[in-house]
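=== RUN LOG ===
request id: a7f3
mode: sequence -> structure
chains: 1
length: 145
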Amino acid sequence: MFLSLIIFVFSAIISALARPTEDWKPPFLMQAPESVVQSFDNMIANSGGLTDEQIEDSIKRWVRRQTDTIQTSYEKFQRDREYYEAVVAEQKQKMLQRMSPMARNAYTKIYSIYTHPTLIANDKLMLIEKIMNTLPYEVRAEIPL
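=== RESULT ===
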């Protein structure tokens, strides 16, 4: 659940605020028209005041209003995501063992914020950014975000 979920949620939020690249799209929208991607981006951009569960519910409601092709792509994305979350969970311990003590401590704090069920997305981003900004560059570079 760890890295792929982080990548998905943060990528979705980042894509709505300022796409990492002009061509970036969520995996399940790769074949979707730009207007559909923009609709998704707008929905995510307005989700900063929501918890993870509320964001997930919003995404599911949005997907149900889309074409069968997009719904099928989303279902496949969900299945793939579950698989990769399991794979990543196995790798998490190895990654933590390779980190410096300072990075491991910071990562543990960040992960607890990221997985907190009642914090809203904006607060999570703010708290994580606050932690990252206090770390030396070398330590920040060790943390996969």
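=== NOTES ===
Residues 3-142 form one domain.
Helices lie at 3-18, 34-45, 52-64, 68-98, 101-114, 121-134, 137-142.
=== END ===
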